CYRIA/CYRIB Rac1 binding domain-containing protein (Penstemon smallii), 1290 residues
Amino acid sequence: MAVPVEEAIAALSTFSLEDDQPEIQGPGFWVSTEKGATTSPIEYTDVSAYRLSLSEDTKAINQLNLLIREGKEMGSVLYTYRSCVKALPQLPDSMKQNQADLYLETYQVLDLEMSRLREIQRWQASAASKLAADMQRFSRPERRINGPTITHLWSMLKLLDVLVQLDHLKNAKASIPNDFSWYKRTFTQVSVQWQDTDTMREELDDLQIFLSTRWAILLNLHVEMFRVNNVEDILQVLIVFAVESLELNFALLFPERHILLRVLPVLVVLAASSEKDSESLYKRVKVNRLINIFKNDPVIPAFPDLHLSPAAILKELSTYFPKSSAQTRLLTLPSPHELPPLVSLTKHTYQRHFLIINHIGAIRAEHDDFAIRFASSLNQLLLLRSMEGADMEWAKEVKGNIYDMVVEGFQLLSRWTARIWEQCAWKFSRPCKDPVGTESHETAASFSDYEKVVRYNYSAEERKALVELVSYIKGIGSLMQKADTLVADALWETIHSEVQDFVQNTLATMLRTTFRKKKDLSRILSDMRTLSADWMANTSKPDSEMQGFHQGGEENRVNFFYPRPVAPTAAQVHCLQFLIYEVVSGGNMRKPGGLFGNTGSDIPVNDLKQLETFFYKLGFFLHILDYTATVANLTDVGFLWFREFYLESSRVIQFPIECSLPWMLVDHVIESQNAGLLESVLMPFDIYNDAAQQALVVLKQRFLYDEIEAEVDNCFDIFVSKLCETVFTYYKSWAASELLDPSFLFALDIGEKFSVQPMRFTAILKMTRVKLLGRTINFRSLISERMNKLCRENIEFLFDRFESQDLCAIVELEKLVEILQLAHELLAKDLTLDSFSLMLNEMQENVSLVSYSSRLASQIWAEMQNDFLPNFVLCNTTQRFVRSSKMSPAPVQKPSVPYAKPNFYCGTQELNSAYQSFARLHSAFFGMPHMYSIVRLLGSRSLPWLVRALLDHVSNKITALEAMITGLQEALPKSVGLLPFDGGVAGCMRIVQELLNCWHSKTELKTEALRGIKEIGSVLYWMSLLDIVLREVDTSQFLQTAPWLGLIPGADGQVVQFQDGENSPIITLFKSLAAATVSNPTFSNPSSFRVLSRQAEAADLLYKSNINAGSVLEYALAFTSAALDKYCSKWSVIPKTGFVDITTSKDFYRIYSGLQIEYLEEAVRVQPNNHGMLGDSIAWGGCTIIYLLGQQLHFELFDFSHQILNVAEVEVASITSTHKNPQFLQNFEGLVEAMKKARRLNNHVFSMLKARCPLEDKQACAIKQSGAPMHRIRFENTVSAFETLPQKGA
């Protein structure tokens, strides 16, 4: 069944194409290049239908408009002309015989360009002749014709402006005469073989004269004007019109004002070509008025990078028109380069402030005020459209308010864009004299002219103001352009209402009062009513609604008309302006007092004011009706990119992007870190959009568009890269600031420097459609890709940095990873980023499901194997490992520390220094903080791999120790008895030294054995630290999961189920939820909750199985015990007699006892005040092996140190009882103290081992692949126990 059209349209109207993308880019104008809405295809030829005797005037206007369009095309050709000579090839000497062919080819290439110049020469001659003839038409006293109309005057001025600009371009383009000289030279060479070249030579001579003569076009125009009769009258009319329009701001938009400023000095020169004409001119227009205008605008924009100066034009043209120099006051005006420096601007009243920075405060206030009021007006209009039967007067007021706001918006845009044009012209006229380059070797002479007028001519504040103003122009333009369809009917109805109110009511009142007895004027007013009154609108409403509007007397009667969206045509506006001009001036263009001056007029002031107001409203109607085109023209800032004149003068193909003003503005926004400008960072790219539009549509040059496109591609890539760096730096700084210890900040007096100023990146990061040269770019996607890449590069850098440091840097690595993770979390609120855990696993090469190792785990293991275990010593008291300074370190080769920008650390230098201070606190030792970092970084996946690698290292060390211990056993004497008490400490030491003299030849073997035992002890102590950390982590996890699993503490401290035989709370919750969804038939997807219920059961089993966590240390001890089982027969020999072997035993405890006392003796001798050459880990290694071999009691009985200490105690007791001075210890006091410390440490180790690994059960815990220990699982003591774990209950 087909859907009715009305319903389909109503359904479509419910769809919204809006999104949450912020409006931080200018309006995206035109896909096509059609003419404006008010441009008539028949020009003004329909004026004849109104029978106003304007046929000649209309014909002339159409002719002038055609010439204006052609002249602009000629100007585009001249402005974009580039030298062809630079591209000509140079023949080598070996090809001189082909010189003639080269000349011919060169001639053919240059002839195409010269043909365009000849066309310009012919056109300017024709245009000058037609303009002069048109002016002479109105200067014949014997012939009375209507005109010139206001439209005609504007056409004359515009054509004269085109001629002035063409002449100025011809004078400025040095490449044109250069190319012509080459063209003439090649013509001379190739024309030798031609016949009848006289005509061509004459054309060449004429073209040469035209190109080489300055102001040739204006000189030709002057000749044409005064060829038959004088045209001073019309010139004076044009001057009066221009002066009056400039003084009273009658020029509605800035292009019209610039036209008047450009042609006025030329008109003055042309009109004052004789003393008589000068005297006549200065009677009508006082010289002071001209001087004030020229002083207020010493620089006038002509082309994007070319300017005109009225003073310079007057001075230069005075040499070509000697009679015009009679008024010397005009010739004394200063040229732009003669004006005082910028610092003294405020001291001179004649100098107008060209710099935007001086006006940005007022502009900002205007922008804010207009944006608020315009939005309010739109809301009122929306409310009006949503109401039916709204009050007519209120509706008229709302629509009239919209019209006023649009007019005000156009005027604001015009004024703001004009300020940019004029500032650019000012900068071009006053280049920077002392540029400061970024490179030290650059000098003032090395800078191009373009760099001096653009790159080094804008201060940071000026760039900021320019960015702000461009943003205001584009922002208001976008706001008005979006409202186009909304306000169109209201604007047209308001214009219709204005016109009908004037012609039906105001003119009717004038006809009844002021002009009742003035037949000629009454006829003109009647003509105005005839050509523009909409009498049909008077019958659009029922009589009952119009009765109230016909009340009152005859004199006060007001016609009621119903507003319709029917606006007057361009021809009607033209005719109305002509008729008002006729009424005011009486057709006399020489009337003193200006257009609406009251001199010699008998029209009352009030009526004159009404006519004047409506006259200038008519001028704005056409701009309002051509709404979109007007907004586009007023917001066009593409001129900021063009640099054709400076490309030619600098003799380069193109300037680097650092000299491009649009890129300078973008770069300034990024580099300045100004929070208020950040949302305007995309606005300067609209300059490229406007420039590309001009290149294709106005200048019609593809090569210019290609250059713009190439620069945009380059700039946009750099912009995205820079912006990403800035965003990344900000979020890293924000994250680092958030993670700083608050107590640290509170204790600092300068804590505020570690805070981060808020920046508004949210709007930029939401941009999914950036319009650039007709393309739409998903900007957010680009930023997301770059951010993913930056995060990965940052992680890679952090790992590279850690790999270049020792294991103590693990705390710094964890802190930096934590900062990056928080920055990623903050960024993920605005961007779609990859998971941080995924990126971390990718960089750790740990993505595979069967990979239990990782890059970080491998690096930690490599560090422990190569640096930590050999070079670090344990301090049992502080529970820390420190790098030993006593023994020679094992050689370790590490890569150099990679360089990176501050944003790969913590963002800013201040935050980097704060976190580096924190890292330095942990850089000289390895302890509990480092172990926490390792556990958090490796997680439950890679930690078991590291544990197994370390235990394998212990096994390998035990294997390596076997040969060393055997060698030391073989060297011992056959009999080693107990030390006698009668010799005292000295005698005992002497006996021990004699017994151990057999090891003097095995110094290296002893050293290696001690190092091996030390590394074993270091690993086991490292495991004890890991065990403490894992128990804390397991406890924390248990506290979080116990309530969901229904677990509570029992009476004896054991964990018990809250309700035996029932489901845990998490299973109960999801099962009830799944049941509720099944019982509710309206629920759309109940299967998803059934899946959640099953997942809850799986989670319950998983977490309950991991509750009874075991001990990593106990497992390590069991593993070590299994590894020692191989060597029990050699290191722990069972006595043949069954009794303890006192004298002949060479078990491990005896070897370790000898190694210990020699080590203690050497340590005391080398470092009397510090006995920690190998640290405390040697005791952990030796005592653990002794304990696991079951030799603890043997060691405590027969250890040399224990025996000597027993002797020392007995000797001290006996001497104390006889009250003698204990001089016997004076040589062994340090050694005895070292022995006491070693005995205390040994006892501590043995007590810990008894508590954690009772030998009678040989029980330990195992570690599952998930990393969760299983408690008290009995398994066979083999080295492969880690790989073949038994199952529970097996």
Observations:
- The radius of gyration is 49 Å.
- The longest helix spans residues 928-971.
- DSSP finds 46 helices and eleven strands in the chain.
- Confidence is low (pLDDT under 50) at residues 30-37, 342-351, 540-555, 1257-1290.
